[in-house]
Amino acid sequence: MNALLNALRAAIGASQVLAEGDLTAWELDWRKRYRGRALAVVRPGSTAEVAAVVRACGAHGASLVPQGGNTGLVGGGVPDLSGRQVLLSLTRLNRVRGIDAANLAMTVEAGCVLQAVQEAAAAQGLLLPLSLAAEGSCTIGGNLATNAGGTQVLRYGNARELCLGLEVVTAVGEVWEGLSGLRKDNTGYDLRDLFIGSEGTLGVITAATLRLYPQPAACSTALAACASLDDCVALLQLAQAQLGAGLTGFEVMNAFSLSLVAKHFPALRQPLAPVPWTVLLEQSDTENEAHARSLFEGLLEAALEAGTITDAAVAESLQQSRELWHLRESIPLAQAEEGLNIKHDIALPVSAIPAFVASTDAALMRAFAGVRLVDFGHLGDGNLHYNVQAPEGHCAADFLSEREAAVNALVYDAVQAHGGSFSAEHGIGALKREELVRRKSPVALGLMRAIKQALDPQGVMNPHRLL
Questions:
Q1: CB 423 within 8 A of CB 146
Q2: How many CB atoms lie under 10 A from the CB of residue 245?
Q3: Which residues, other chains included, contact 31 with Cβ-Cβ below 8 Å and sequence gap of 6+?
Q4: 333 with 327: CB under 8 angstroms?
Q5: pLDDT by residue (tens digit) across 337-347?
Q6: CA dihedral defined by 424, 428, 431, 432, rounded to 10 degrees?
Q7: What is the spatial order of strands in the sheet that 203-211 belongs to?
Q8: Cβ atoms within 10 Å, residue 410
Q9: What's the Cα-to-Cα distance from 446 to each of 194, 214, 434, 442, 450, rounded to whole Å?
Q10: pTM to 2 decimal places
């Protein structure tokens, strides 16, 4: 290992190879569920240096773990406990290489923080619509490696749909230059889509060309109260019919999830009285504020008349809009304050969600007396964060260790029965690797393993993650 450390120091400079001291910031995952021990944390400053690191690891028989902002939720970006893996931090690759306004595209390096990229686009009057709670610390490389979703997938798609091209360091240390800004390029296999969502197991994304959009002329945000999840789905259908592509966000939150926000963040004002389900919806308009307001108010009036919603609160300013979104984004933080919990990031056909939630809520409460259910997420694209909190007064850590496997089996069996997926936007990582083996078809797994073997025969790239 000393020979490898010396090779890494020669490749990128001794100051960027951290082998001693406190490496907790890189070795501990965001949820504090996984803690590893790295041989070293290396911080290359260019694509060429990333390639040199990969080649050095291959030559010395070592594996590496790529890491962006370390905001992942499935343990895919931290080293194992062997003390022999190299943690490859990409945060120094943080340059915006260029913005092509006429082509509605920008090229950025993988270590750029998502919020900084959004701001760079906005400075040119353009919109990068990828938006998620961790945008102040997550990085573009990590977003693409996990095919991140977020709050605007309904209108703009996942990270995959927002990427036009990639630059990738392969598992043997070569550089694939694929930073095309083309919308059409039928020249063989789509290598871009192969690396997006691969969780660092096939290569290292070092830069990307991203799709941009014009900034909307106006934006409207509201909370709406619904008596049932069926009413939430009916409201979604009505909003899609009346707003069309202007509907950019549609989030649902059950009563308990918002009660946790009220308990742990009492300063956050909740403008509606507690109801079984609350919808946060947002519309973007290309014309003007008056046009947007007319469409939005017409939608809410129609929903009230139909009995689909019982009340609504419309943001009157950008600040009020941010406050409504802050309520939604505070749910995971409130859960963390309440104690450890069992998280599920699931996808279902929108039409199946009410039946799934009703039957699975009931099954969980029968099997685990007093369990509390935190149901919220992106109803517009069928992605729910279906989380299970320990019974009140019960030790959360004990509940997690004793019940997680049984809870997961119940939930994932129900997801499968309703035609869904047990992983929507968080990825597989280490947390769901065995679940993937149980629930993915043998044919699909065989194809995945063949791709891994072909592109990374030495097992250099993030081993024991995903597969």
A1: no
A2: 12
A3: 73, 75
A4: no
A5: 999 899 999 99
A6: 80
A7: 96-100, 105-109, 203-211, 163-170, 175-178
A8: 18
A9: 15, 42, 15, 6, 6
A10: 0.92
